[in-house]
Every structure is written in structure tokens, then in C-alpha cells.
Amino acid sequence: MSEPLATVADVPEGTLLGVKKANGEEVCLFNYHGQIGAVSNICTHAEFLMSGGQMLGCAIECAWHGAQFDCRTGGVRRGPAIDPLPVYEVRVVDGTIYVGGRK
Q1: How many other CB atoms are found less than 10 A from the CB of residue 93?
Q2: How far apart are CA 7 and CA 75, in angstroms?
Q3: Could you tell me the domains of the chain?
């Protein structure tokens, strides 16, 4: 079941936004060329918040140790992380961002 967590205006192009689902899951929203997506907000390497990092093209870089993940797939692009970030279902309706379960 998806839930409204933010608006498109909350996530300008090339930015990250940390939000929390009702069940407590930490989610990192991103805006890549106008496409809104969501990955886990917890780095798989050292559990730092991904929303504290930055977007480099379609890579999301963790601010703590520099691990990079593909924003579309969650796949590791650069270590020290080994495991991918979980990716969430996202839909945008009338400017509201709804996040569902993990893909």
C-alpha cells in the first residue's frame, strides 16, 4: 500500500529528501531529471543516511564513506558498499509523491 510522503516541490531537480514511512522505514526520495524515485535512506555499508549525501548524475553518493549507488536500480556503483540499496515503488499524483513497498 502506498502512502503520501512529500510533494514534488519538496524535491527539486538533483536533490535528495529523507522521509519516513508509517511503519518507520527510512526512505530517500530523489529527483533525477524530473523523475521522482525512492531508495532506502540507510546506506548498506555503514548505516548512514543517504539523504545526507548528494546526487552525481544518477548516482547517489553516501556522505560518510563515498559509496555510490545507481538511483534507478539501487546497484552499487562504487564501494566500499557491497550490497545494493532497496528501491521502492513510487507514483506521483497531482504533485503528491506516494511511496509503496520495496520492488
Answers
A1: 9
A2: 26
A3: 3-102 (2.102.10.10)
